Every structure is written in C-alpha cells, then in structure tokens.
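Appendix C reproduces, verbatim, an entry submitted by the partner laboratory led by Prof. M.T., so that reviewers can inspect both the input and the predicted structure.
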Amino acid sequence: MQMMGRSVGLLIGLMLCMVSSLAQAETVEVAPGVQVTKTTFKAPADEQPFYGFTAKTAGPRAADEKLLSDLIATAGSREQAFEAVTLRGWKAIQGGRAVEAAKRFNQAWLLMPERSAVYHGLAMVTQMRFNDLAFADELFRQAYKQPHPLKALNSDYGRLLLMQKRYRDAQPVLEKAVVDTADFGDAWAYLAFAKLQNGDKAGACVDASEARKRKPSRSTVRDLAHIEKDAKCN
C-alpha cells in the first residue's frame, strides 16, 4: 500500500509538471494581433521560422531594413517583392530545399507579416526539416486566419493531418482540397488514403482512380499502389 501511495504521488507530481510546462509555454507576437508559440530549433537563426525568435540588435535591424529596401526596389513594390520572395520559397519547397525555403519565407515575414503564405510556408519548413508536427499544425491553423490563403492550403494541411494519423479530421479538409486544386493528383491520393483509413474502401478506390488521371508525383504513385491493394480496388 505504501509503494502504491508513492507511485500515485509520483504520477501526480509528473502530471503537475506537465501542466506547469504547458502553462508556461511562451507565445510571441509575430504580426499585429498574431501570437504563436515560441518554438526554436538547432539551426542558424535565418533557417528557423521567424528567425528563431531572436532579439535583434541595432546592426541586424539595420541589415533587415536594407534587405527590405533592396527587395522592394528590385521588384517595384512591397506587394511584388512579397510575391517574388514567396515564389522562390515555394520552388524551394517543391525541390526539397527546406533551408532555402526558410530563408525566403522569413524574408516574406519581414515584408508582409500578416499574410497567410508566411505561416503556410513556415509550416511546411517546420514539417519538412524539423519534423515538429505540432508546431507545423499551429502555423497551418494560423495560415487559415490570415489574408489571402492559397488554394494549396487545404491539400498541405490535410497531408499534415494524415501524418498525425488524424484521419477523421483530414478527410473533410482533403474533400475541400480536391475542389480547390482539382488537377492536383496528390490531393486526390491523400483523400483516397484518408477514406481508406476511415473504412470507406469504395470511396478510396474512386479517389485513387481520380489521382492516377492527374499525373501524381512519383512517390505518390507508389503510395497509390498500396492504397489500391489495401482497398482491394479492381
């Protein structure tokens, strides 16, 4: 009985520590009215979301101002500079170059911190390079709240939900994704996988067939073979 009492006491202590840690999680304002959890990684500051939340001295702040001035002067306006920087960021994401993508989306944050693409892009970086699915999820959810979300948002967030094994949550998001990006074969494949995991084998087969009509990526083609086998598609 004494040992049991000690075990219960230890368990309660651990739970209190966990609650205390959660309560102490620091949030940082990254745009007017936008708070995110301060989350850092072992990487140079410019390769982390929001420059690793580092407090910048006068020198780095001046460098940021010069960078912004140069980007805007080259592009012609702040909006055009934002579009150019994020385009380079998405190309880096597609090429699997997470380091470059982080730098571009950090620049985009300096240019227009309120825009959805900033949080969307940094969520992808967090997922790709640091495998922190919880922080990526937070950034994706923030991307939905910000102006001008991209059509690919539902597809990318749906994929993250699949990685988290949140199949019930993923399916309605991916059902929207195949409307938003109907020609994106991978989105149909993600939806097929969600339906398979949710017990809808017939629906999975239909969506897998749609995916194959739309030139899915090479890795997704391999995934489709497994989906079709597990769903027993004809």
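The two ends are 60 Å apart (CA to CA). Additional entries are available on request from the coordinating office.
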